[in-house]
């Protein structure tokens, strides 16, 4: 088992975190859209947002670990077959995905703590409120949260489509590498 990335290879930690985060983001998107349609008398009215917030804070912790891991174990080199445009475009996309994701997590935190209430994570521990501006904080953060959620979903689907293009049209190892295959394993 290869934990760290090499110059040709995504290690298992990067692979695991990548797919775990992707799964969590799509799940959170669906959960978020569904929970805001619930009525007060629905059994999930309180439970769904609690779940959304708890998973969201866990996702934040995973994303911080992911960024630290980027420095400990940098990603493999771009494949030799990539054009300069592909190299720049993919880097730009990866950075944008990171930034937008942190924006979603921060705005989610600001909605949840706008009234000064802490966030309970599955009842295990609490994250305290810090910024609690009076008035429009929850509404403003809510609009930003929704837009950023759509942006991350659309961009990541385009990013996924690009990976499929590499796999099915260019027949290169881009997608296989994100499942832990080595550059010289075809
Ligand atoms: C990748 C992570 C996340 C995604 C994709 C996501 C997505 C969404 C979506 C699509 C909505 C529905 C918004 C609407 O229709 O108005 C929503 C609502 C909400 N999210 Fe998230 N969310 C994420 C993380 C978080 C985090 C970390 C928190 C808090 C710690 C959070 C707190 C909330 C709250 C409180 C609402 C309800 C807002 C309202 O009542 O208008 N979310 N989220
Ligand atoms: C919300 C969903 C997603 C996010 C946030 C995301 C984010 C990222 C990021 C930041 C990287 C750069 C490597 C790293 O830092 O770990 C990456 C690489 C990659 N992702 Fe995603 N991704 C998502 C969904 C997908 C999907 C759905 C696919 C394919 C079906 C995919 C395929 C890949 C591949 C093949 C790479 C390696 C690219 C390369 O070697 O340059 N990702 N992804």
TrEMBL record:
GO function terms (MF aspect): electron transfer activity; heme binding; metal ion binding
GO BP, sorted A to Z: respiratory electron transport chain
Cross-referenced Gene3D superfamilies: Transmembrane di-heme cytochromes, Chain C
Subcellular locations according to the entry: Cell membrane
Keyword annotations from UniProtKB, A to Z: Cell membrane, Electron transport, Heme, Iron, Membrane, Metal-binding, Transmembrane, Transmembrane helix, Transport
Protein's UniProt keywords contain Metal-binding: yes
Family, per entry: Belongs to the cytochrome b561 family.
Domain Cytochrome b561 bacterial/Ni-hydrogenase intervals: 10-180
Bilayer disposition of the protein: Multi-pass membrane protein
Name assigned to this protein: Cytochrome b561
Cofactor(s) annotated in UniProt: heme b
SUPFAM superfamilies recorded: Transmembrane di-heme cytochromes
Residue intervals passing through the bilayer: 12-34, 54-72, 92-111, 144-164
GO CC, one annotated term: plasma membrane
A Pfam family the protein falls into: Ni_hydr_CYTB
């Amino acid at each position: 088992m290869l934990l760290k990335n090499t110059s040709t290879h995504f290690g298992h930690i990067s692979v695991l975190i990548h797919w775990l985060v992707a799964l969590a983001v799509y799940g959170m998107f669906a959960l978020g859209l569904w929970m805001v349609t619930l009525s007060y008398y629905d059994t999930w009215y309180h439970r769904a947002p609690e779940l959304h917030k708890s998973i969201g804070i866990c996702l934040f912790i995973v994303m911080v670990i992911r960024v630290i891991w980027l420095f400990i174990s940098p990603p493999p080199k771009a494949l030799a077959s990539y054009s300069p445009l592909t190299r720049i475009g993919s880097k730009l996309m990866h950075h944008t995905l990171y930034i937008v994701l942190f924006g979603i997590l921060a705005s989610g935190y600001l909605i949840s703590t706008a009234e000064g209430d802490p966030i309970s994570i599955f009842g295990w521990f609490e994250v305290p409120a810090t910024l609690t501006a009076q008035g429009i904080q929850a509404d403003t953060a809510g609009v930003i949260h929704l837009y950023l959620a759509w942006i991350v979903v659309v961009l990541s689907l385009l990013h996924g489509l690009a990976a499929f293009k590499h796999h099915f049209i260019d027949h290169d190892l881009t997608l296989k590498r994100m499942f832990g295959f080595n550059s010289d394993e075809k």
